[in-house]
Sequence to fold (149 residues):
Amino acid sequence: MSPASLRTGHVGLNITEIDRSIAFYQNVLGFDLLHRSDVPGRRFAFLGQGGELILTLWQQSDGAFAERQPGLHHLAFEVPSVADVEAAEQRLQALGVEFQYEGIVPHAEGSDSGGIFFRDPDGIRLEVYTPSGVRAHAAVCDGPACGFF
Fold:
């Protein structure tokens, strides 16, 4: 195996309540439920699009996302265009999801990539971004990236 052959497969998240998290990721990001287990003590779900596994949810946590501990910083989902980011933003607003920043945020001042930042029901930090087309949006944070949230 060479580094050139590696790519991210799926991401697994520890969550506190399986039904709530499934509903969130289906309603907010449009994922399909591919498989789930409701066996007591072993509740999990596999979510994806077009039959491809993207996200696994494991109900094995208490409390909220520990952003100041080593581990996941945030999970970003790429979409093809600014229009797709705007559509996600509108869907999130309609669902009452709270945003980290107002509007679409470039990844750095003058950058053409950027997106929206928000949290799932367990406080896990999420991003929906596009690699280009956001240069016209004003950055709302300092530094080379808005990663310090």
